Amino acid sequence: MGKGPGLYTDIGKKARDLLYKDYQADHKFTVTTYTSNGVAITLTGTKKGELLLGDISTELKNKNITTNVKVDTNSKLFTTITVDEPAPGLKTIFSCIVPDQRSGKVELQYQHEYAGISTSIGLTASPLVNFSGVVGNNFVSVGTDLSFDTSSGNFTKLNAGLNFTHSDLIASLALNDRGDTLNASYYHIVSLLTNTAVGAELTHSFSSNENTLTIGTQHALDPLTTVKARVNNFGRASALIQHEWSPRSLITISGEVDTAAIEKSAKVGLALALKP
After folding, report:
1. Do the beta carbons of residue 54 and residue 73 sit within 8 Å?
2. Contacts with 110 (C-beta within 8 Å, 6 or more apart), sequence order
3. Of all residues in the chain, what percent carry a pLDDT higher than 90?
4. Nearest to residue 240, comparing CAs of 226, 224, 250, 260?
5. Could you tell me the pTM of the whole model?
6. What sign results for the dihedral spanned by CA atoms 50, 51, 56, 57?
7. How confident is the model at residue 4 (pLDDT cuts 50, 70, 90)?
8. What is residue 266's DSSP assignment?
9. Which among 85, 133, 203, 275 counts the fewest CB atoms within 10 Å?
10. Residue pair 203/183 in contact by the 8 Å Cβ criterion
11. What is the DSSP-derived secondary structure letter of residue 265?
12. Mean pLDDT across the stretch 64-71?
């Protein structure tokens, strides 16, 4: 774990990654190559039912500046420029989407031993302003995530979170959706040797009085192969197996079945990532 409390997005991240990362019902293919001058070119294709989506991106790193440009099948151009540590602990990120004239924004991230701050502002006449901050240390941290729309004068996001970390356990509690949703998550490392962990997430909506409970686990069959499984209180069960057949090249096969409607076909997803 890194030094300090991290950013607001780190609250509950371990449990979210365990329960949701790498699960998918689509077919996805990603291949990355590198040019002689160090430019990384990544081609991605995704098949969603009968729909085929794709994009191509380039990434260039020059000292502490990273430039990423991506074009997708909808003819949108995504540009992100990241300046890492122009000052100790500081990161600057500029991003925009062409032709969306309201998408441009500048973000500043600052991480300290006892605090983590991220703030962004849209590059428009009436911008959306976002601020998130966390205070604490490697063991306990508390933070908030706010967004203010200057065009309407309203807060579009009002979140708050608490994170507790022990040697092998991480627990978090967050109040999201302007106080309408309470989210509690738990992540426990069972064995570092086999990368075995268990996790759970409980979400309660005050407006609908509905609860969603998801529990999951992961285990490394060997240093190159990991299996994961999860199930929620609605009877949706998922599992995946991921194998690193060469350094940084992964194949992931995942499936989902609705146990409450077993007559329906199971969803099967396949992801292949190739990197030299």
Report:
1. yes
2. 89, 90, 91, 116, 117, 118
3. 88
4. 226
5. 0.91
6. negative
7. confident
8. P
9. 85
10. yes
11. P
12. 96
- CA 49 distance to own-chain centroid: 24
- Residue 1: per-residue pLDDT: 40
DSSP conformation class of 86 = S
Tokens 């949108």 -> residue: 76
Asked if residues 230 and 216 have their Cβ atoms less than 8 Å apart, the reply is yes
What single string gives the DSSP state of each residue in 13-73?
A: HHHHHHHHTT--SSEEEEEEEE-TTS-EEEEEEEEETTEEEEEEEEEEEETTEEEEEEEET
For range 226-249, the mean pLDDT = 95
Averaged pLDDT of the chain: 94
44 Cβ partners below 8 Å, 6+ apart?
28, 29, 30, 54, 55, 56, 57
| Position 119 pLDDT exceeds 50 | yes
Give CB contacts under 8 A, 24+ apart, made by 115-118.
115/4, 115/5, 116/4, 116/5, 116/6, 116/7, 116/8, 116/10, 116/143, 117/7, 118/7, 118/8, 118/9
26 token code pair: 């689509």
Number of residues assigned to the chain: 276
Number of Cβ atoms within 10 Å of the Cβ of 107: 16
